[in-house]
Amino acid sequence: MFGRCVLASIFFVVSFANAAQHVRVVTDGAIVYRNANFDAKVIGYFRAGQQVAISDKKFENIFYRVRFKQGVIGYIADVDVHVETPASDKSSSKGSDKKSEKDADQTNDQNTDKSEEKTNSDQKRKRPQRPKPMLAKTYLGLMGGYTNYSEIINKTEYKDSIITYGGKFTFPFDASFFVDVNLAGTLGSPQFYKQLSSIEPKGYIFLLSGVLNYPIFDFENRRGVVYMGGGPLVVMSSYVIEVSNSKLDLTEVRMGGVFNLGIAFDLGKALFKLEPKFYIEKSSYNSYDISVQMPLN
User: Fold this and answer.
1) H-helix segments, 127-273
2) What is the rounded distance in angstroms from the CA atom of residue 207 to the CA atom of residue 75?
3) d(CA 253, CA 235)
4) Which of 126, 211, 251, 261 could bridge to 231 as Cys pair (CB 3.0-4.6 Å)?
């Protein structure tokens, strides 16, 4: 039984390879479906200009079977790719009557116009107007967070909850991922710095991270998505405190990593995100961030 399944899979892949034609994607964020249906599960996206391999024939009169990536086959709408139409064979000879040729051309033009009108009409009836997929857009916006911050000073770990604020930049990566670049921080002082210093401490904390996110599942007709990701983290803290009438400059740059589990929802003109995060550097701590971003494309 297992051997038959393997042979069937090999036959399917070989058959698709032999029947495939290479075309160019014309829609940025073209959706790849698991089945030939607009309501089917989305398995990824293509960018405009990508060269892809599709089947010679259509499915449900709208979809081409497409090779999404190695070993993964999906379906893409015909309006999202540009298929070269082969030139028709010339059947008229040099001795044909010019008037007959002209009449034939006019008849062909009329038939072509009617065919195009019918095709366009069918497409309007069959295809819903699909906005650009949420994860295929680039966003820029503001973020804020409640961070249970901790820091190690002289081998002692200190903790305090701080409010951070900053910016978030999001862009698509490959066909199934998207990247968040986060810069957040505070110009206030954690409580433990005030306890260590005889004067009001002055300084800042900044957290810079780049997170590669993978969508787990979507909901609300793909307006929302749950995702998870991780990436590098750079933390810079700089405070001047006074201890025993001596000023100390506590400036430090630390490297680490950040992991998040988030939910994003498309509000139409803005993208809302809620992200619990877990940071690991010299110490470890967590945060709860929210952001509102505007699409740039």
Assistant:
1) 191-196
2) 41
3) 6
4) 211
Give the start-to-end residue ranges of the domains of the chain. Answer: 1-85, 135-295
Instruction: Name the nearest CA neighbour of 43 among 52, 31, 55, 51.
Output: 31
Closest to 191 measured CA to CA, from 237, 251, 240, 149: 149
- Residue 72 CB-half CA count within 13 A: 14
Q: What is the per-residue pLDDT across 4-50, written as a single tens digit (0 to 9) for each?
A: 544 444 444 445 544 578 899 988 878 888 888 887 888 888 888 88
* 0.85 surpassed by pTM: no
Q: Please tell me the distance from the alpha carbon of residue 179 to that of residue 135, in angstroms, as a whole number.
A: 10
Alpha carbon distance 180, 217 (integer Å): 18
| E strand segments, the chain | 21-25, 30-33, 42-46, 51-59, 63-69, 72-77, 81-82, 139-153, 156-173, 177-186, 202-219, 224-243, 246-266, 271-280, 284-295
pLDDT (tens digit, 9 = 90+) per residue, 47-98? 888 889 898 888 888 899 998 887 789 999 988 898 876 554 444 444 444 5
Domain 1-85 has CATH 2.30.30.40: yes
Does residue 192 contact residue 201 with C-beta atoms inside 8 Å?
no
1-85 and 135-295: identical CATH topology? no
Report residue 278 CA to chain centroid gap.
22
Burial code (b: 16+ CB inside 10 Å, e: under 16) for 151-176 equals: bebeeeebebebebebebbbebeebb
Query: What fold does the segment set 135-295 form as a domain?
Result: Porin (2.40.160)
